[in-house]
Prior knowledge:
Layout: E1 2-3, E2 9-15, E3 20-25, E4 36-45, E5 56-58, E6 61-66, E7 77-87, E8 90-91, E9 95-102, E10 114-118, E11 125-129, E12 135-138, E13 149-153, E14 158-165, E15 177-182, E16 278-280, E17 284-287, E18 291-292, E19 307-311, E20 314-318, E21 328-331, E22 338-341, E23 343-347, E24 350-354, E25 363-367, E26 372-377, E27 381-382, E28 385-389, E29 392-396, E30 411-412, E31 418-419
Parallel strand pairs: 1-8, 2-9
Antiparallel strand pairs: 3-6, 4-7, 5-6, 7-9, 10-11, 11-13, 12-14, 14-15, 16-17, 17-18, 19-20, 21-22, 23-24, 25-26, 26-27, 28-29, 30-31
Amino acid sequence: MDRASKKPEISEAYSYGVSGEQEIVLSGFPEDCGEISGGNADIISDESGILEEKIAVEGTQLKFALKKNDRSQIGASAVIQVSGVLTENYEIPDIQVVISLNDKNEQHPIAGTITFQLNGDEKTFTAEIGAVEGAEYSFDGTTWSDNNRKDDCQPDTLYHGWIRLKETETENAGPAAKVSGRTPKLAEKPPVVGPEKPGDGGNTGGDNGTKPGDGGNAGEDNGTKPGDGGNAGEDNGTKPGDGGNSGENNGSRPGSGTGSSSSDSSKPEISERKPDISRDSKKGYIDPVKGIIPGAANKAVNDGHSHWMKDKNGWWLRYSDGSYAAGKMIVGEHDNMQTVEHQWELINGSWYAFDDQGYLRVGLVYDAGYRGWFYMDENSGMQTGWVLINERWYFFNPVSDGTRGMMFIGRKTPDEYFVTEDGSWDGKTK
């Protein structure tokens, strides 16, 4: 039997933090060595104690285990000697295997985004760093966690956030990427006036302060999922602010009874042909007047309908093809501020807005596409005309002129009342 001319040597490095059973394939044998058998393994050097005592040779594999270790053991090494390996055609000299602990691999930086949404108190904002799989977040650059939201941001204030990939068993935490943005400015509001609507002795035409669905709107759904309530005053299928609207109130205040949907007893009743229902490959069944016709809520079934779905974060719309309605992030050309251009959908005759994460927006909503504020009700969608919000009256354009539903700011309303720079009525008579 010939003796192999070259003494095999193997080096294997592991990142600190790696522990438990490991395997190394013994290499360096002549190609024509034939069948391999036998072999013993002994630890001949391990000053830092990185190896468990139990080691073995099985065929061409060396099996051993690393003890638990930490950063202080970076650079430590141990030597295992494999001897007595038998082959069919050669006598194999002893093999030395060097095991060492190195620093972990470095991870690449990742890009981040930060967005702001107005809170329900309409005074503060929630900052959200865009979620990335395997990432962690910080709002002070020091404390890191899975929480990517900060819910107490003040208006017109610059905020910073940081995002990085988490440390793993084999990789260090990635370099932190800083993201910055400024919350929108809320103009100082004038002193609170009484809750009476401009020109009226009461508030029958607006939001009367009750929770969504509780009265004040004959077409409302009284607490059921968004969009299930009819609304004769809603848009007829064009996107917000565009096109005609035969069912619109034509500028009269809510509840005034002058909308075009009112009946005229002196005219004979005319039977109207039911609109043709079509089926869109993405959104499912579509009514040409009322828009998307949703199926049962929280049912992810392929029945040809889109469906309202709800999870811990809120309502979202699952299209019939399994995708979902979602807007997109817009970055300011000059200030790099990030705001949302919403996805608008007409559902059962009412317009709804969905943010870049796909969730339904309610309350005051700023849309980057229209560059204006809208007021969204969970049950009846986009509101128009006079709306009472936190004891103040605001006016939202009821006319389909390209800005329908947008808040009036610093100007007169069609009924000759003045709203201030924050959109609220100044409390004065005409």
